[in-house]
Design a protein that fits this description.
single chain; about 180 residues; alpha/beta; six-stranded mixed beta sheet; about 40% helix
Length: about 180
């Protein structure tokens, strides 16, 4: 970046998502000051999206909202979802990054979920609330998340978002390779 200051708008005020986005950009642009702002951005999907399609749409909607209401160099959004696959239930996230009119979509790895917990999601509960009840925690979604609890802290919600965002940055780091 020629500019030593990069503005970033994140489609959430959740500190886990904001920190993941800022840390990802700082990794790619260590010489730049990252001016990061988390904002309320509606997903347009259920609070707990089920299925890959709704989860992706939620992240895309958040980025679109940010682009329509804020001026920044980068826009990032993350949407956590869950689905039942033929091999079992899992939670995951989609990430969307927009920069200079181009967009990149990434997806995290899957974290297996116990079927008993997934059944509660199908009944309309949010994963964070389900995990808080199962592990006797409070507001885990703004901390290590289900990922931190189920992996005993070997991975966290933030580390998972960061990995997905880091991978989704590839088209912006190598724009000539990703030309249509």
């Amino acid at each position: 970046m020629q500019n030593k200051r990069i503005t970033l708008v994140v489609g959430s005020k959740n500190p886990v998502k904001v920190n993941a986005a800022k840390t990802t950009l700082a990794t790619y642009f260590p010489e730049c000051e990252i001016d990061c702002r988390g904002v309320d951005a509606p997903s347009g999907v259920a609070d707990q999206p089920l299925g890959e399609n709704d989860t992706l749409i939620g992240a895309q909607n958040r980025v679109s909202h940010c682009q329509a209401h804020y001026d920044a160099d980068f826009y990032m959004a993350m949407e956590g979802g869950a689905a039942s696959f033929e091999y079992g239930a899992a939670t995951f996230a989609y990430v969307v990054i927009s920069h200079k009119g181009s967009q990149s979509v990434g997806r995290s790895c899957n974290l297996p979920l116990p079927q008993s917990l997934y059944a509660k999601l199908e009944q309309g509960e949010e994963l964070g609330d389900v995990m808080d009840a199962a592990f006797n925690t409070t507001n885990i979604k703004q901390q290590g998340g289900a990922i931190g609890l189920l992996t005993q802290g070997h991975a966290t919600r933030q580390s998972t978002y960061q990995q997905a965002l880091t991978l989704a940055m590839a088209p912006f780091i190598h724009p000539d390779l990703f030309k249509s």
